[in-house]
Amino acid sequence: MKRIVLLSIIALLLLSVGGMAQARYTMSWGFELIGNPNARQVALNIANAQQELLRTTEDQTGIERFKESLNRMAMSKAVRDIVHYNPDSDDPDRGFVPVDDGWIYYEWDEVAETMRIYYYSDGGWTEITIDSSNPPEVPTM
Fold first, then answer.
1. Residue 23's pLDDT is what?
2. What's 89's DSSP letter?
3. Do 80 and 115 contact (CB within 8 A), yes or no?
4. What's the confidence (pLDDT) of residue 19?
5. Which of 39, 60, 87, 90 could pair covalently with 64 via S-S, beta carbons 3.0-4.6 A apart?
């Protein structure tokens, strides 16, 4: 009788230790996301993007999404052309970009070495100038 009780206690201890190890492994894997702030932010961004995707899919048709995509691509190309313009290259030094409520016209001024950007909206032009000849000093750390 003592032998049966002793063997059953040993068996119970072995099974409980094995079960605790298995539970600890599962629990540590499940909470990796909560302890890591970067993983939390990535998961939050993915969830927000999925929620926004569902919202825009319901509100917009395929043609509207395609038109919006073309507008974003045109604006992205214009920004790249303006920001990365090299006066020594064969790239055009001016261009028009349509935006939702107007136009953007940009041109390189060779005399002043500046990029001039004009925005047309409501029947008038607004000018923005980017001077690339005098960059600021490098910050000291």
1. 52
2. S
3. no
4. 59
5. 60
